[in-house]
Amino acid sequence: MLQQTQVVTVIDYFQRFMDRFPNILALAEAEMDEVLALWSGLGYYARGRNLHRAAQQLRDEHAGQMPLEFEALLALPGIGRSTAGAILALSHNQPWPILDGNVKRVLARYFSISGWPGETKVAKRLWALSADCLPEQDVAIYTQGMMDLGATICSRSKPSCGQCPLALDCQARQSGQVASLPTPRKRKTIPERAAWLLLVRDEHGRWLLMRRPPTGIWGGLWSLPQIDADNENYWQRFEIEHSIKLIPDPEREPSLIHTFSHFRLHLQPLTARLESYAADVADSPDLRWMCIDEAQKMGLPAPIREILARPKIAALAANS
Ligand code: SF4
């Protein structure tokens, strides 16, 4: 949960998650829908899917226990070199280096390493320094200390160098490069995309929800049927694909913009009324009619949750 996300954001999610899944077996036995529902709003959903798969792999291959070998940890979904190292260093004092965002920042500044840390040669250098700095004992304390130093004192903007235990020897501080290290990635303009979101309700006031494919954005989450805005015949295609007939001229609802790490998505919700539909339209594990209360308990992307919570949408459902 803490990958790419700050502690304050994570706390409530973590507590709800641990209440429901207090151990590996409980998580492994859960339905993916329930896991994603508890992850809903935290973003980067691949982490939730990977955690669930990792729990199942631990149940099936390691008798439900975390292995203590680096290679076995690395083989689990969602665990990379730094996470595997952190697990072993923090839980068993094993001397493995880590290189999360906070540690990268401290090392890049302390040793004055320029170049974007995502570049292979810069990352190699930082990994080597991280390994060289490992103490012979108290690896767990040292590792936690480095992570905390990066998260609190050596923060991205306005680091508190005056309170830093490394200040005397810090090369970035000596050379006045603190603000420019680590070197940021060269920003490309972020592409813009647009999509329609169809709010289709049946005569009972239930909305049609569709489970998204397991990979890609919002993978495995429930969402409103979404159609690319540049798809000319989107309406007809949607009707044919789902044996649905909609009354023409859907109503435009207030639009919203959602920013992903690699593009910005303009979403235009449209409320559409049904003319007719095949009785089995939602007899599928991936397409269902849901009342708002039921939908809000599922794993929904944050913008979809926001749309379904709008008073007008609730009123439309109530007046069906
Ligand atoms: S002296 Fe400043 S820049 Fe250097 S490690 Fe400490 S907080 Fe970071």
List unreliable stretches of 5+ residues: none
Multimerization state: single chain
User: What is the overall silhouette?
Assistant: elongated
Helix-and-strand structural type? alpha+beta
What does this protein look like?
- This protein is α+β, with helices and mostly antiparallel strands.
- It has 14 helices and nine strands.
- Strand 7 (about 255-260) and strand 8 form a beta hairpin.
- The radius of gyration is 24 Å and the shape is elongated.
- Iron/sulfur cluster binds next to helix 7 and helix 10.
Name some characteristics of this structure.
320 residues, six-stranded mixed sheet, binds iron/sulfur cluster
How would you sum up this structure in a few lines?
With 320 residues, this protein is of the alpha+beta class. The chain contains 14 helices and 9 strands.
